[in-house]
Amino acid sequence: xxxxxxxxxxxxxxxxxxxxxxxxxxxxxxxxxxxxxxxxxxxxxxxxxxxxxxxxxxxxxxxxxxxxxxxxxxxxxxxxxxxxxxxxxxxxxxxxxxxxxxxxxxxxxxxxxxxxxxxxxxxxxxxxxxxxxxxxxxxxxxxxxxxxxxxxxxxxxxxxxxxxxxxxxxxxxxxxxxxxxxxxxxxxxxxxxxxxxxxxxxxxxxxxxxxxxxxxxxxxxxxxxxxxxxxxxxxxxxxxxxxxxxxxxxxxxxxxxxxxxxxxxxxxxxxxxxxxxxxxxxxxxxxxxxxxxxxxxxxxxxxxxxxxxxxxxxxxxxxxxxxxxxxxxxxxxxxxxxxxxxxxxxxxxxxxxxxxxxxxxxxxxxxxxxxxxxxxxxxxxxxxxxxxxxxxxxxxxxxxxxxxxxxxxxxxxxxxxxxxxxxxxxxxxxxxxxxxxxxxxxxxxxxxxxxxxxxx
Length: 456
Hints:
By secondary structure, the chain is mostly beta strands. The protein has helices at about 35-50, 55-70, 105, 160-165, 385-390, 440; strands spanning about 5-10, 10-15, 140-145, 170-175, 175-180, 185, 190-195, 200-205, 210, 215-220, 220-225, 230-235, 240-245, 250-255, 260-265, 265-270, 275-280, 280-285, 290, 295, 300, 315, 320, 325, 330-335, 335-340, 345, 350-355, 360-365, 365-370, 380, 395, 400. The strands form six sheets. The protein has a ten-stranded parallel β-sheet. It is globular and about 55 Å long.
């Protein structure tokens, strides 16, 4: 049995590669030399992407939030009603002027020439996925065909053809379209899927799969009503066709994927999870997205024996967890998860949970508890007695609790990260913006209706 000794974050990990046995590799039916090579490359990338000073990353994000908020012009709606109004979440400012409240949006969204400067987006990501550039270094690829009829030799102009090409590509859409994927969409490294300027629906078919890939941006699309694919022969890169088993019905599945940014995506009703990040996935940011109508929203780490997920570092920021959601926002095994400035307006069981000693840093979120008196707690430790989980680092800072919501903390504050080499001016305390500001920070969550020549 092969083993690799790795020193990560000041302690050694023994990674038994046998736990990554081929027959469980995310629906790969035939684990050939091609997949063995991709798996090995992905493992190296997982190790390389781990940040030994995560507090630097969280401070960096909070610093940019402070700059964005403190630099905004004063508007009459700063003290508006905290609950959702009848006019919806995407209400324009009274003046009609574009105002971007969070630092990711402020980086690009108010530029009326965004269509000519699409790749500016790649400079805007924050959090653990901050090094993601997607297809920035490649040409523009225009999808002009919504069909998905040939899984082995996809037709040029289709989304499946675009995402299976070698090399970086920035993928855009010629017009609005509904794409029903016959089987899971195998996305290769160095790709951006950019739905701005169109309404792009991935719906009524299979979902998106990022397996053993690096450097992918998914931006401004709708992913809804995702169902399992039956499997079969599917092109998974320009030069390889693989045999797949039945897919799970995840909306977006990250399996050994690194440097991934999911931004301004609207998701609802997937058969399994909305977003799963497992088996060594790390350096991920999920931001500005809107989730509704689902039971198990996000799964970070799939199995207790997958110790590679100790490397997992994920940022969940500026999202709206909305109507008819039940649990897992997210549910974590191992890893470090920064949950910051999100709006939790609905859950039925719990919002944030996990086991296997994940580190969860909750900062500046708004939690509105459901009416059920048994579901007021934000957190849930699963399959673990108190004597074990009391030392886990689950911290809440600046969160805003409504309707009896409460967060059960554990561990010691700041014990989860080495003392940072602070990359920002000392005059900033790098404290998160409080949960009472979340309404502003998340008001444009979900897919945007961007039009050329106008701010989004």
